Amino acid sequence: MTTTAHEPVYARPAAPSRRAVLAALAAAVEAIARDTDSKAAWQGADDAPEAWIDAPPATDLDIWCNAAGHAALHAVLEGLGAATVQRADAPGRLRHQSYAVETSDGLAVVDLTTGDLMVGPVLLVPASQVQTSGASSPAGGRHLQGVAGAADRFVRPLMRGRTVQGPRLAQARAEWNRSGDLERAEFIDRIRAQLGRRVADDIDATLGGTPAPPDLIRHARIALAKASLRPRSIAATWRSRRTILPARGTAGVLGLRTHGSLVVLVGTDGSGKSTVGRQLDARLSALGIETTNVYMGMARGNLPGVALARRLLGVATVAEAGPAEGMSRKATAPPPDAATGHALIRRFAAWYYAAEYGYRWWRDIRPAMRRGRVVICDRYVYDLRESPSPNSSAPRLVEFLMPRPDILILPDAPDGLIHARKPERPAHEQAAQQARFRELLHQGPARTASLTVDTSGLDQVGTDTIAPVVASVVASMHRGHVARH
């Protein structure tokens, strides 16, 4: 009889609010400002940090920093369980990294721009010339000031297709007037060399107080496209194409292009696969991420004829063993004189199951992946290593042909606790199988992450063991946005 008395039960700690995330980052920016080797400052309008608290999920909290500042901010975001959803570090282009943080209000995005202040391949202000304000904003921390402040508040959004008005434009003009004549002249000369005289003169006039010409956006965007396609920039532009092209129909909850992600749970009976799968499904659904749950064990959804083979092999059917124990063996072993025949049947069954795995991938997993869903798969082709014929070459072939999981999860607990949950099989057999799954995890077959989730429930009060899995899944969905040199 199956027991759930030892099912892991513990309270998940409350996820941080956006305000709490902002407070942690504000403290880091303030600490960086006191370090002579580090620099960091908020980007955007003066009220951008506070406005981010109630903004839609796809809205970035933008921070500029130098390399030392990036290390400090990265450590804070890593401590918050953030996932990298976009990274661009191609030489000659804007260097930035976007993080998604799971909060009580859903996913929140923080974007760190490192080094030179740029838009694509267009250099606005070199990092060595970027100045930050000495006064704290209401959220804490520093803002870009002088030419860098004007470029960030006005030129940066202009190059992305919009002209700012109201307080943000007034702030840009105030920073422009705060800078010296030499700084302004050097900036306009730099823009003129990259975007042409007309765009540079219109930017100069607008920051000086003249209303922006109605065709400024069009001319600026055309100039940016030309700069991106110049011979010295074309290679970096191509490497960054996935972060440049609009997502359109493939956009996820963050507005970025997403891919389907395959999450596979492995482990012996009683390890906690179903519990972890349910928790992960609930967390992702709460974030607005579409999921599909698939069972890939050998007990359900089999092709015709497998039920007969299971009876010949002495393996219990679902009806005999219960819905969660379809892989449990009957207590009565087959007669000794049938061993040779059973070995042949097992070898045949291994290849039959290998074909079935391919069929079920095509039928159940592939369509959901193509729709950009996260597929949470209870068991996978690795079960063929265990049964029906472990020495067959079928497991090796099917693992080679089948797509690797993006995330591999092993729910784990002490062997005695696992057996207490599902005592239908001998304890030593369960322990040996779980040990083999632990070894599988160490082999790292997953494309993004191979993770162990503690399902013991021991000393777990207030511990969120699913958070690292959620972060890995979010990162996996956005894996196409990592552009490297």
From TrEMBL:
This is Unannotated protein. InterPro entries: P-loop_NTPase. It comes from freshwater metagenome.
